[in-house]
Please model this.
Amino acid sequence: MSRAVVTVCGVLSCAAANCSSDDVRVGFVGGDATPDASLPDGGIEASAEDAPLRDAGTFDPAPLPFECTTDPCATELTSTLFDAQTVCALLRDGTVACWGGNDYGQLGRGDDAGTLPSATPRRVVGIENIVALDRTCAVDKNGSAYCWGYGPYVVGDASNTTTERTPVKLPIEGVKKVSNSGNVGCAVVEDGVVCWGSNANGQIAPFDGSNRNVSLPPHPIALPPGAKARDIKVGNATLVALEDGSMVSWGATPPLGRVTSLFPDSRPQPLAVAGITTAIAMESNNACAAVSGVGYCWGQGRQGSADLSRALPTPIVLPEPVRQVSMPAQRGVVPDRWCAVGGSGAVYCWGNNESGQAGDGTKDHAYEAVEVRGLPAPAVKVETLFDSTCALLTSGKVYCWGSDYYGQLGTGELKASSLTPQEVLLP
Model:
């Protein structure tokens, strides 16, 4: 199958630009950029049938074959909060290695490491037997959660948001997944979901007149009856993928992703997206999900001067089905680039490309989604930073490209930027 050039344009703008019927469209598609989210509760159902046609066969949602070919081998990949230009990988031996920026202690190397960036990946101190990783939080095989860097880590007074240069253990047991946004943390535990931190957006507890602008200790979340959480992501709203393949959210609009009469909405309610959710992402005011081979994004976004903001999940389209979508974590900045993993394991990026972070060998703005060149194996995950990108491959290797100002390419050299993927020197 040839990989068609994919054009970023909505249905209305595509007509204005005289797009032909043979064009494959990518990015946000659909109608009004800002549908009224103040309508009665409910939703506009979006499904794979709503997406434009694409040159792709039947999607197999099973993970791509993954095999560690050599050690060191990574099994998970994540980037950190606040445009911190840091990447972390879970290694096969149960340890975590990080590289890049260290302004908030996100490398996890202790007080003696200071705040200088590091282009050489090294292990986070004090944690082992890790089985799950998200941002700068990790879960070990016993269900204990540890976090480092900047966040609401329930150290002392629950209202504290702290900077921890060494991992601290959260006072929560039976953890399966953990995520945090810098001021809100949530975890999937054996009997449901608990959240803690700032309740400004109703992500910790329903508003009672006295708890809106305060920080709260870990609090159980009332999911819909019978709902069982599988994964969780936190921004200005909280997004949960359930075991039945559906999603629920609560918190602030626009990352809430559903129609509501409440601002914010502290009630976990389903998103009207039909299909089986295989991957979710949430960054401040932007969210994405892969559902039955279709990528959806919603919340704030821009492409050059064009406003791509969407209050409801809107399909994106690649030349093949979508396994995962990623956007950078940029505090106070509207996302202007995204990357996705296709069904074959190919990686595509579109948007800002000033540092070559789109991976097509140029610095030209990627108004059209481009396929990353030079990856030696299919990808199972992509992580999108502000001006660089990293991918975890089916071989357990990690490759990064784009800016290396903070050493985020992990090659051992600072400011050695690259327009093509470079192998990370995992420890």
